[in-house]
Amino acid sequence: MEMKFRKHHARAARVTATLAATVGLVLAVGLAPASAHPLDNTDPGATGCSSGSSSIYSRTIYSGGTAIGLMEVRYSPSCGTNWVRVNNYGYYPRAGKLIYVAPSGAYNYTGDSYVGWSYGMQVYAPGSTCINVEGTIRNSSDAVVGTTGVIQLC
Question: According to the model, what pLDDT value does residue 35 have?
């Protein structure tokens, strides 16, 4: 009798674990932000959106009182998109660009190794849509050494 109970109990535990994993996967997939617009997470240069764009905000990135980079937020009136670009002055090898649109859930984070200007992908945020942006500079171990912090622009 005890052997039968153990087999049943083990089978029930496997079914419960499988069900929990499946529910977790469904919830995780359901919570992931989806691109609501075809221009979300696209290259502003490749789409032509960079033509006629302008800088709508900029902030210097500091590390210990030394300016190590500059973050700019770009806007394309013809496409209704924004993106972040960072000028890494060369003190550290990596930079990151984050842009997030709260209402739609669209976001883009781009990190790369470079010196000089680099830009991230764009998100659709027409007119006065609020966006959250951040520019970071990282060392070779990928630790943040300078950041603008998250800034909300409306």
Answer: 58
Segment 101-127 shows an average pLDDT of: 90
pLDDT in tens, 77-97: 999 999 999 999 999 999 999
What residue type is assigned to position 7 of the chain? K
3-class SS letters over 66-132? EEEEEEEEEEECCCCEEEEEEEECCCCCEEEEEEEECCCCCEEEEEEECCEEEECCEEECCCCCCEE
Provide the pLDDT for residue 104. 81
Q: Classify the C-alpha dihedral 69-75-79-82 as positive or negative.
A: positive
Q: Are 91 and 140 in contact (CB under 8 A)?
A: no
Question: For residue 80, which of 47, 105, 110, 57 has the smallest C-alpha distance?
Answer: 47
Query: Which residue in 131, 130, 129, 133 sits closest to 150, CA to CA?
Result: 133
| For range 91-105, the mean pLDDT | 90
